[in-house]
Amino acid sequence: MIKRTLFFSNKASITTQLEQLVIKTENRETTIPIEDVGFVVIEHPEIYISITTLTKLSDNNVAVIFCDAKHMPCSMLLNLNNHYIQQELFSQQIKATEPLKKQLWQQVVKTKINYQAEHLKKLGKPYNVLQHFESKVLSGDTSNMEGVAASYYWKNIFDFNFKRERYGDYPNLYFPEIG
Question: 100: which DSSP letter?
Fold first, then answer.
């Protein structure tokens, strides 16, 4: 069974009861079996999550990822009881051949560009050029199609002149919850 990823971008309270996650927001309360969860991403700064909940998530090999004020992952909680499995995965990743790493990166970049195209398509914006860029991704993305596609995507996603900059003005660093 594929495990679920839970992403929390709004204020919430996360506790447990009867091996279920109990998620309470201002609008509703819901439960999810802990055994169905693979990842929990905590993005909002006002998430309450109990120590008991974190322990039960860890016991069920659920990775909990915490994000910083820029919505970027900054730390991760992993189960130490099964660390040998994680160590084996790290070891296998390190031992991977360079061609395999480059092929995997090619797949990642192609998927990213595909999702960008799908997003523009859903917004009714021109997207066909992204499909072309996706078809041109080489092993290891040596032609930097990821950068070319990202430039096109960011120029076309908004209805105003926008340039993607790490420390640029709105909407680059816009935090709807704060500003």
Answer: H
Q: Which pLDDT band holds residue 155 (cuts at 50, 70, 90)? A: confident
Alpha carbons 86 and 72: distance in angstroms, whole number: 22
Q: What is the DSSP letter of 106?
A: H
What b/e string do you get for 37-67 counting C-beta neighbours within 10 Å, with b at 16 or more? beebbbbeeebebeeebbebbbebbbbbbbb
Q: Give strand pairing partners of 47.
A: 12
Residues in contact with 40: Cβ distance below 8 Å, sequence separation at least 6, in sequence order: 5, 6, 8, 14, 57, 62, 63, 64, 65
State residue 47 phi and psi, 5-degree precision.
Answer: -95, 130
The domain defined by 4-83 folds into Ribosomal Protein L15; Chain: K; domain 2 (3.100.10)
Q: Boundaries of CATH 3.100.10.20 in the chain?
A: 4-83
Task: Kindly state the average pLDDT of the residues 91-111.
Answer: 93
Label the pairing between strands 47-49 and 29-33.
unpaired
Q: Is the pTM of this model over 0.70?
A: no
Segment 48-60, tens digit of pLDDT? 999 999 999 999 9
Write the CA distances from 110 to 23, 81, 119, 148, 174, integer angstroms: 35, 36, 14, 12, 28
